[in-house]
Amino acid sequence: MTTRDTTSDERRQAGREIQGQLWPATRTAPTGQFPAARLAPDFYDHVQQTAFGDIWSRPGLAVRDRSMVTVAVLAALSQTEELRAHLAGATNVGLSREELVEVLMHVSVYAGVPATNAALRVAAEVLVSDDS
Fold it and tell me: For the CA atoms of the chain, what is the radius of gyration?
C-alpha cells in the first residue's frame, strides 16, 4: 500500500473543485471515463494537481477570469480541441456567449485572423444552440 502526500491530496482536491466548476459532469463522472485518461491516468492526475490545483486555484484571479484568459490563449495557439472544452467550461463559470465572442475578436489583433477564424468555428459549434 502506498501513502499519498497530503500536499498532493490537497492539490488534487483543489483541482477537482475547479474542474467541477468548469465541467459539472466531472463531479460525478467515474475517474478514467475518457480513453485518454485510461491510457495515461498519471498525466491527468498531474494536470489536475498542477494546472488546476496549483494555478487555477490561486487567489489572484477568479476562476471566471482565468477561464477568459485560457480561452484567449488557446485561441491564439490554435489549440481547437482544448478550446472546445474550455469554451463550454467558460459558460459554466459565468461568461456569456457575447463576452466569449469579444474575447475571440480581441485575439485577432494579437494572434491573427486565421487563429480567430478557427476559434470562431469551434465557438459556433459550442456556443450556438438550436434555439438561437
Answer: 16
